[in-house]
Amino acid sequence: MKQVSNMAITSNGSLATLLVLFIISAAIYSGAAQFAVQSQNLVADNVSVVEGETAIISCRAKNNDDSVIQLLNPNRQTIYFKDYRPLKDSRFQLVNFSENELRVALSNVSLSDEGRYVCQLYTDPPQEAYADITVLIPPGNPIIESREDIVSEGNETEITCTSMGSKPAATIRWMKGDKELQGRSKVEVTYDRMFTVTSWLKLTVTREDDGVPVVCIVDHPAVKDFQAQKFLEVQYKPEVKIVVEFPVGLTREGENLELTCRTKGKPEPQQVNWVKVDDDVPSHAVITGSDLFIENLNKSYNGTYRCLASNSVGESYDDYILYVYDTAASTEAASHDSRAGAEAQRSVDHAVIGGVVAVVVFAMLCLLIVLGRYFARHKGTYFTHEAKGADDAADADTAIINAEGGHNNSDEKKEYYI
Q1: Which of helix, strand or coil describes residue 279?
Q2: Residue 313 gets which letter from DSSP?
Q3: Which of 21, 62, 236, 252 is 20 to 30 A distant from 42 in Cα terms?
Q4: Taking a C-beta distance cutoff of 8 angstroms, is the pair 141, 167 a contact?
Q5: Mean of pLDDT values over 284-299
Q6: DSSP sequence for 329-348
Q7: Omega into 126 within 30° of 0, i.e. cis?
Q8: Residue 294 forms beta bridges with which residues?
Q9: Considering only CA atoms, which of 336, 322, 321, 333 is closest in space to residue 256?
Q10: Per DSSP, what are the bridge partners of residue 339?
């Protein structure tokens, strides 16, 4: 009995000690709160965390003289006092406790956990640092809608993209193919402090836009590559082109003519018609769908043949001008083409021959110049040797006699040679 009584006293003593500790802490908080200062010695970082994930709160003292570090919630309730957790919330877990740091993890963060958390260092006066926790709530899947599903070319359409239930508000961008477009956005705050963003995009479509994706891109710090897209469906009137299947080249009397009308449109043309502008189509012409066939051509068939195609958007056409050549004219035209080709070939041949002749003449002129200079040098040497005897004469008479003597000597040399 006495042992049980002692245990009870011990238990009551521990509870009393803890109660006294809390009373002292509360007194210190209430008294020191007025004198607490924020110092660079105590450091805390702001935290942004996505809803449902874990936030890490760190209180760090650069220089600590065994002072106590504690962490308080936005309501200034003690979460951790040293390495003790008085607050009954198991989501708070101690990550690290040392002389210079108190680091706490808050798991499964919700919007109600957002606020300013206080790191407090018991010095004289007390020091405080603040860690603001911002809870990010990602938006729901973007919803993209258009005013009409099918648009005719040249008309304007409007596409809407909505991003709901985010915090902070998202931003919306638009892309058409690889080109960014500018929309108009509106932000609304809901009753639960969430944000809904709506963006409208207006654009005038062309036939080239058919099948092109329009993409709504939602930018938010809690998500990446969040987007929705819608493919444009554009209707346009037909494109028409007449192709000559036969003949190839000139259309001559007695030959056959075959034309094909090729069309493309959305929707596909319901009707394709052949007409002759300002006249009737020849009675024996055969029209089969998009093909026109006329046999045994003559000049009375000359004129403009038109293919018309239409759909629900509109009508388009293409023209073919028929001119029938008579046989003689076509032969003459072919002969003229042949003569023109031959003359062109002869012109080319004459040009080549003229070039060769010019080169030869130039070479001959160069050769004549070289030979002329050669003979001129040898002729001067001959005259110099013939008058050599006159170079040493004292007067003109002696020079003449020496020159004549030179002739004689020359003759003697020639006779001696013979």
Answers
A1: strand
A2: S
A3: 21
A4: no
A5: 93
A6: HHHHHHHHHHHHHHHHHHHH
A7: no
A8: 257
A9: 322
A10: none
Provide CB contacts within 8 A for 403, sequence distance 6+: 386, 387, 389, 390
Q: How many CB atoms neighbour CB 61 within 10 A?
A: 22
CA separation for the pair 135, 405 (Å, rounded)? 134
Average pLDDT over residues 91-99: 94
State the amino acid at position 97 in one-letter form.
F
Cα–Cα distance measured from residue 74 to residue 117, given in angstroms and rounded to the nearest whole number: 5
Burial of residue 209 (number of CB atoms within 10 Å: 0-12, 13-18, 19+): buried
Number of H-type helices and E-type strands within the chain:
3, 25
Locate 336 and state its tokens. 């003229």
Place of tokens 């705050």: 189
Residue 50: its H or E element = strand 47-50
Average pLDDT, stretch 124-137? 93
Q: Do the beta carbons of residue 297 and residue 252 sit within 8 Å?
A: yes
Q: pLDDT averaged over the chain?
A: 81
Give 99's DSSP letter: S
Other C-beta atoms closer than 10 Å to the C-beta of 41 total 16
Q: Record the tokens describing residue 334, joined without a space.
A: 């072919």
Q: Cβ of 300: how many Cβ atoms within 10 Å?
A: 9
pLDDT digits (tens, 9 = 90+) for 211-256: 999 999 999 999 988 999 999 999 999 999 999 999 988 899 999 9
Q: Name the residue among 121, 119, 123 with its Cα closest to residue 131.
A: 119
Alpha-carbon distance 171 to 189, whole Å? 14
Looking at residue 336, its amino acid is H
The backbone torsions φ and ψ at residue 267, rounded to the nearest 5 degrees and listed phi first, read -70, 170
Residues 227, 144: Cα–Cα separation, whole Å:
9
What is the rounded CA–CA span in Å between residue 348 and residue 386? 58
CA-derived radius of gyration, the chain: 55
Looking at residue 212, its pLDDT comes to 96
Q: What DSSP element (H or E) covers 318?
A: strand 315-322
Measured at the alpha carbon of residue 32, what is the angle toward residues 29 and 37, in degrees to the nearest 5? Answer: 120
CA–CA distance, 142 with 162 (Å, rounded to integer):
5
d(CA 222, CA 185): 20
Beta-strand ranges (E) seen in 54-204 are 55-61, 69-72, 78-81, 92-97, 101-106, 115-121, 127-136, 143-146, 151-152, 156-166, 171-176, 179-181, 184-189, 195-204
Mode of pairing for the β-strands spanning 55-61 and 271-276 = unpaired
